[in-house]
Every structure is written in C-alpha cells, then in structure tokens.
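Lab notes, practical 5.
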Amino acid sequence: MGESKRSGFALPAVLGILALTILACATVWRMQWVNQQLLNVESHLIRNKQIAEGIFPLVVQDIIGFSATNSTFISVTPDSSTSLRHFAGTDAQTHAFYPTTAQERDKLQVRLGNAMCQAGICAPRTQVDLSAEQWRNLLNQSQPVSMADLPSSNVSAFYWVEVWLNANLSELVGSSLIQTKPVIPSAPSPFIYRITVLVQDNTSTPTSELTKPRPNTLVIQAIWSRATETAQTGQWHSWKLLA
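Output from the prediction step:
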C-alpha cells in the first residue's frame, strides 16, 4: 500500500516538472524570437537611415534644377514635368514649382490651395511641425524617388521640400524639430529649405499579433540653404530623425 501511494504522488510530480520544463523552454524560445525581431527592425532602420542620407544630395539637385551655366536639367525622377518644376509658367498652369522670388512663392501658395504640398514641393503659410505619421499620411503629396536611385528594390522613398522665406528662419530655429541653430549665409538666397525624406520597406512586418502589419518606416528631416540666389552649392544647417 505504501509503495502504491508513493507511485501515485510521483506521477503528478513528474508531470509538473515536465510542464515547467516545457514552459521554460517556450519562454526562452519566445525571448530569442523577440530579440531576433528587434534585431531585424534595428538593422532595417540603420539601412533606411543610410539610404535617406544618400537621398538628400539628390533632393538638392532637384531644388537647383536648371543650370544657366550648362543649360541642362537635373532631375531625381525624370518625367514629362521635369522642366516645369523650376518655372512658374503662366497663370493658367497649375503645376508646383520651386520659386525664385517671394512673389513666385506667393503664386505657389495660391496654386497649392488648401494642400500643403504638390509633387513634393511645399509652401506652408504657417509654421507646422508634422510628426512622422503625419508625413506618412501625405505620401499623395510627395515626390517619389526613382527606383534607379535606390540601392534595393525592397525599399521605396519619398520626399517633401518646404520652401521658407529667410524671414521665417527664426520660426524654424524655434521649432522643436530643429536641434541646432542654423548659420545664415553672408549673401543668402531668398529661401531656406526644410527637406523631409521618408524611406520604408516594401514588405510589411507585424509588430505584434494584435496590430496590423506595417512597413518599417524612417523619416528624417534637414535644413539646407543656398549660399546665394544662383549658387549651385549650399550649406546644411541641422537635421532631425522623426521616426
């Protein structure tokens, strides 16, 4: 009878130890899986940050556009409207363009209407500091980067250029998105440009079982100005990683 009772207690104990062992193994496996997912996300963000930094010079080329010295057009994404990005055109036209005078910026604002941007060119009427998610919701107003300018077909990139008068520089300096104080060039152009670049994976990665899968997205912002109104080069003043 004694041996029977001991056997009866031993079986539940073994089963309990076995259940605890399985639970511990499952916990370790889940922790390893979570760490692997975090490493994957981090590696994607590092890659996307490097891609975004490489896009900034392409955006500057887009801003400079037509060069009077060699009469050529520089375009990030060549299309039928390339030349129109650097000329206001007639009052009957509705395309967005990079203004060269304060009056042309006023005309650009009229063309944009209630929209903040068109084809990646923006002329905000008031200081607006958008979050990364808000920029992501403005993809229909962005300028896409050509796949030929991207190192991988697994990512896509877009950008926006806010054209500010130099008189608005104090507002940008006071913005929570600006980390350092820009240095105003000695002979500045009428404008200073705040460039926002968004890079995202074309494949979605679920963040959890309860959330909808979304692409890994990185948004980075920088301020650039030309040394003079017609200069082909300029100066970077500050940058900010939004997400």
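Observations recorded by the TA: The chain has one domain: 2-241. Residues 2-241 form one domain.
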